[in-house]
Amino acid sequence: MMRDAAPLVSVHDLTVRYGEAAVLRDVDLDVAPGEIVTIVGPNGSGKSTLIKAILGGVKHSAGRIERKPGLQIGYVPQRLVLDPTLPMNVERFLSLPHRIPASRAREALERAGVPEIGKRQMAALSGGQFQRALLARAILEEPDLLILDEAAAGLDQPGAAAFYRRIHEVREETGCGVLMISHDLHVVMSASDRVICLNGHVCCAGTPEVVANAPDYRRLFGEGTRGAFALYRHNHDHRHSQDHVQDAAE
Ligand SMILES: Nc1ncnc2c1ncn2[C@@H]1O[C@H](COP(=O)(O)OP(=O)(O)OP(=O)(O)O)[C@@H](O)[C@H]1O
Fold first, then answer.
1. Would you say residue 93 lies in a domain?
2. Where do transmembrane segments lie in this chain (predicted)?
3. Which atom of ligand 1 is nearest to the CA of 48?
4. What is the structure's pLDDT at 220?
5. Residue 12 sits in which domain range?
């Protein structure tokens, strides 16, 4: 990772509103080349909105987003719904909207850890294979920054762990930066260089160690689902408008 290098993307004092309601307030974030940054936060805390703003799909009402000139982004959505009656194999899917040589498709599938699925029908893939196909498509153009919005949601625990391991390897192999949203807190803690805890604003940010060492988090981490809520409760000396998270943890 190159924290000293110019960031791939940096977000300053970002505010996003849907109508009157501010969904994001004064958010700062940056991703350096080769760095894995994970956004965590309760449902409705603005994680997807932040990513959409970075991708340019949502307008912000204040603040600014700076992208490295010529920045190439690869995006892996949480899910993609394809017409199951549409015959389309994986290689063809990778060739949309621009036809690519079969060798490039094979290389991307190898990188994504699924070299064998090129001729399989998209509709016949398992959830894990489908997400790998989306990953292959996102890395086809050798992006500088890979953005994943809960891309392992719906996979079982070993499947999700394998998926994140693969992301780690892609980062090692290509040097791309990674910005992802994840609810898999165990994975977040082991696979991220930096964690941003979001709840409309940035509650806390730092290395996984710093975030995980918050007393509540340490006390509760690993105690079933309660551990998952602990991250959102650490060292808060203020109340949120979304206190359902706190309620859910109690
Ligand atoms: N297009 C929209 N119009 C109006 N409100 C929206 C829109 N998209 C999202 N919101 C609201 O903005 C808030 C943040 O949504 P967002 O999807 O960014 O949260 P999230 O942290 O990604 O949630 P989750 O973990 O459930 O995916 C929510 O209250 C949501 O209802």
1. no
2. none
3. 22
4. 36
5. 1-72+183-250
Q: Please, what is the average pLDDT of the chain?
A: 84
Q: Which atom of ligand 1 lies at the shortest distance from residue 198's CA?
A: 21
**pLDDT of 195 over the 60 cut:** yes
Closest residue by CA, ligand 1 atom 24: 43
**Residue 57, domain CATH:** 3.40.50.300
Tell me whether residue 77 is in a domain: no
Instruction: State whether ipTM is beyond 0.85.
Output: yes
Is the overall model pTM greater than 0.80, yes or no? yes
* Cα(44) to centroid(ligand 1), Å: 5
Q: Is 49 in the pocket of ligand 1 (CB under 6 A)?
A: yes
CA 230 to chain centre: 20
Secondary structure tally for the chain: helices H, strands E: 10, 9
For residue 6, the SS3 value is coil
Which of 74-83, 202-211, 218-227 is the most confident on average? 74-83
Structural domains in the chain (count) = 1
Residue 201: inside a domain: yes
Q: Quick one: pLDDT band at residue 3, thresholds 50, 70, 90?
A: low
**pLDDT(223) > 70:** no
Is residue 162, in this structure, part of any structural domain at all? no
Q: In whole angstroms, how far apart are CA 143 and each of 76, 140, 146, 147, 178?
A: 12, 8, 6, 10, 10
